[in-house]
Design a protein that fits this description.
This protein is α/β, with parallel strands linked by helices. It has 11 helices and 13 strands. Helix 10 packs across helix 11.
Length: 300
């Protein structure tokens, strides 16, 4: 009797363990479900990347939230967020903090280069700006109305503050729109204002929505700080970003916390290899993983 009881107890335990294993969620580099947070200014290009990735890997589900850079970093401290895509990497103190928290340091690197476009109305006559002129507008020394791509600390706002304002506060003439799409709408309706937003919202010559917007708004030209000849100006484009001729270019960084290969690593591989890099290039951005080396601008 004892042997029979032992046999049935072992059999039930085996079934329970086997059932538990069967019901456990499966995650590989091409299957499973994860959450990521992305800087709102990168939305058009990341949406295109996800569309192709999802069509190739139908068992993968990547839930994405588009937020300001500072909110993405806050999300990254939560267990539920596997990856963020923003305009900077992690500092040494941040790396040490995450290593203490997780037991390992997250990986990060540059996927591609974007640019901050200075947007003006199609009817605007003043379309050439020096960096000093832009700095004066952002500080309020020049009271021209300025609209930014968010009310919170976005990557673009942080970059402009670091590079053009040297940590000085924005002037009272600077307003925060509710995202990049609203910057475009605002400039359409306010011909005397200028706006700052990511080039990937207005630089694609084949995207129907962007082509339609280009009928009412246009990008201004900035002084070329790397050009040998004085008085040269550059339009934001794939070529001028790559050559370092456009002064307001900025990187697209990934930050991933994954201690073993999972769906986050799979998506990162997709973004870093040929198909993902070609999508960046076709969006008129500059891929960073295809043998490309970008020259540094002269923003100090």
């Amino acid at each position: 009797m004892r042997k029979i009881f032992t046999f049935f107890a072992g059999f039930i335990l085996f079934i329970a363990c086997n059932s538990s294993t069967t019901n456990a969620p499966i995650e590989t580099t091409s299957e499973g479900e994860i959450n990521i947070s992305v800087e709102e200014s990168f939305k058009p290009i990341i949406e295109e990347q996800l569309k192709v990735f999802n069509s190739s890997y139908p068992k993968a589900k990547i839930n994405v939230l588009y937020k300001s850079e500072i909110e993405c970093l806050k999300d990254f401290t939560k267990d539920s967020t596997r990856m963020i895509i923003i305009t900077r990497g992690l500092g040494k103190a941040e790396q040490a903090g995450f290593k203490n928290q997780l037991g390992y340091a997250p990986t990060f690197g540059i996927l591609a280069y974007n640019a901050i476009a200075v947007l003006v109305h199609k009817s605007a006559k003043d379309t050439l700006f020096t960096l000093k002129q832009l700095g004066d507008k952002l500080k309020g020394v020049d009271p021209q109305e300025v609209v930014m791509d968010g009310n919170n600390l976005t990557g673009i706002n942080r970059f402009l503050k670091d590079s053009l304002l040297k940590q000085a506060p924005f002037g009272k003439n600077v307003h925060g729109a509710n995202g990049s799409a609203d910057v475009i709408t605002y400039i359409k309706n306010h011909p005397n204002a200028i706006g700052f937003l990511g080039l990937n919202w207005v630089g694609d010559k084949y995207d129907p929505k962007q082509v339609e917007n280009q009928k009412q708004v246009k990008t201004a030209m900035l002084e070329c700080t790397l050009c040998e000849e004085n008085g040269m100006y550059a339009q934001p484009s794939q070529a001028t970003i790559g050559r370092g001729q456009y002064s307001l270019s900025l990187p697209i960084y990934y930050i991933l916390k994954e201690n073993s290969p999972g769906l986050g690593s799979g998506f990162l591989n997709f973004l870093s290899l040929e198909r993902g890099q070609l999508i960046f290039r076709r969006a008129f951005l500059v891929p960073a993983k295809m043998g490309f080396k970008k020259r540094n601008g002269l923003l100090n």
